[in-house]
Each structure stands twice: as C-alpha cells, then as structure tokens.
Amino acid sequence: MQRLKEKYIKEIKGKLQQDLGLKNSMATPKVTKIVINIGLGEAKDNSGILDKVKVYFSQLAGQSPVVTLAKKSIASFKVSQGQAIGMMVTLRGDKMYAFLDKLVSIVLPKVRDFKGISANSFDSFGNLNIGLKEQIIFPEVDYKSVDKTRGLAVTITTSAKNKEEGKKLLEYLGMPFRS
Length: 179
Known about the structure:
50s Ribosomal Protein L5, Chain: A
C-alpha cells in the first residue's frame, strides 16, 4: 500500500471527519482521481513529437497516456478536426496516491520561486488545478532526452462538496498552500 494512502486511512480520515463535523465516515472527502494533461500544439506540424513526449510522459505518470484529438476545426489555430493536439493520463488507486506523494514531496519543492499553491486554484467543488511550467522537475524525466521544456496541467479531483473541504483534505495530505 502506498505511504500516502496508508496515512490517509489511518490518520487523516478520522481527523478530517472530526474537523468537518461529519457523522458518517463515508462522507469524508477523499481524492478520487488525478488527471495529467499536456498540450502539444506543435504536433500538428511534427508527428514525431508525439512519440518523444509519450515516452517521458508515461515515465512520469506511471502508465501509458492517451492522445487527445481536436473535437472541431479552428482555422485561426490551424487545427483540423481529429488532429492530435495533446496527451492525457487519468490516475486512480495506488498510482494516484504514488503520484500525489511524489508531487507533494519531490516535485513542488523543486519548482523555482515556489511559494505555495494559491487557494484560487480550487473550483467550487473542491477540485484543485495546478499548472507546471516544466516537465523536467520530475525525477523520472531524463534532462538529456528532452528536446524542449513543456508545461503540463494537473487536476486533482476530490469528493469534497466545496472549496473549504477540498483545501482541508489536501492540506492534511501535505499540499503546500500560500498563507
């Protein structure tokens, strides 16, 4: 069992239930999934980029990514319908907790001038959206094999009912927030 998952079950769940004043332990918020997305606008000109990015993206996520396709044509972006424009991975279960642990303890402290995550990064349902500017801050990505630094978006979906519950859950899991 993952370290963070074990900590959630043994320590955090009870504290969180008490703090939020919940009577039923099943109503306690939890992380349900993590979606990692990377946009590859240059893939429309160079299809070889998809293969390069797929290698390190699968290394940092721990599973193979799915290529995302354009839903409709947009002439101003020179994108046609069905064209590959990015990749995404949805993590659940042990892989999700392993990635979250790595994100909190290794990756975010390596971000240059990192002062914590803004509370404005939450949506109204307690889900957190984080944008990372470089993929090379992940320990699995080999710096020499990367041709260009690319950003990626991480969405942490929780079962929380509002921002406050989601923030409290992620604070207990070790997510650094600005004060």
